[in-house]
């Protein structure tokens, strides 16, 4: 029975590491122009009053 458990755990660990790598890559990739916008606004098309971080002169993340 352990013969099935070890490969299953290995697949779970590999998928978890891949997901963590993708999250890290989304933060540090200089070519990803939409990373900061999507993490704040969720990619919706409607204006919600939130500002995109890094584009505000005041340094606040949200405007209310």
Descriptive key words:
single chain, mainly alpha, 64 residues, elongated, 2 helices
Topology:
Elements (H helix, E strand, L loop, with lengths): L1 H27 L6 H7 L23
Short description:
By secondary structure, the protein is mainly α.
Describe the structure.
By secondary structure, the chain is an all-alpha fold. The model has no long low-confidence stretch (mean pLDDT 74). The N and C termini lie far apart (57 Å). It contains 2 helices and no strands. The chain is 53% helix and 0% strand.
Low-confidence stretches: none
Strand-residue fraction? under 5%
Q: Helix amount, in percent?
A: 40-55%
Rg, Cα atoms, Å: 19 Å
Tally the helices: what do you get? 2
Major sheet: size, sense and barrel closure? none
Q: How confident is the prediction overall: mean pLDDT? A: 74
**Count the strands?**
0
Order of helices and strands: HH
Overall, the morphology is elongated
Distance between the termini: 57 Å
> Class by helix and strand content?
mainly alpha
